[in-house]
Amino acid sequence: xxxxxxxxxxxxxxxxxxxxxxxxxxxxxxxxxxxxxxxxxxxxxxxxxxxxxxxxxxxxxxxxxxxxxxxxxxxxxxxxxxxxxxxxxxxxxxxxxxxxxxxxxxxxxxxxxxxxxxxxxxxxxxxxxxxxxxx
Length: 135
Description:
This protein is α/β, with parallel strands linked by helices. The protein has one domain (about 15-125): Response regulator (Rossmann fold), CATH 3.40.50. The chain has five helices and five strands; from the N terminus they run βαβαβαβαβα. It has a five-stranded parallel sheet, with helices on both faces. Helix 4 (about 95-100) links the parallel strand 4 and strand 5 (about 105-110). Helix 2 runs parallel beside helix 3. The longest helix is centred in the N-terminal third of the chain and has 12 residues, at about 20-30. It is globular, with a radius of gyration of 14 Å. It starts with 9 loop residues before the first strand and ends in an 11-residue tail after the last helix.
């Protein structure tokens, strides 16, 4: 028999900047009823992902983080779950959408980004969003 928690969707957000993490969380909470799991360390995020990769519908990660950058995090996650949808959110200006896809990401968000851009990148990646009421 399936546990009721098995059906709960989870989105993972990874950013070493607590303010950015809170802002991203507030944005995505307007798009889904999924549980939002926030990680300020790529190592901690990878450990949580490795424990249950199937529970994460989407991962949104920063690029520049101490100890492991977003590209390495993406590579390691895709090794565990090759079909995982991972979006790169960066303010570095280093990546183009094509470069992000080449690195394994399914989308690119250049910080700062408005919610409309977030919606578009998620939709392009095939992530289902809950159309919650928006003012």
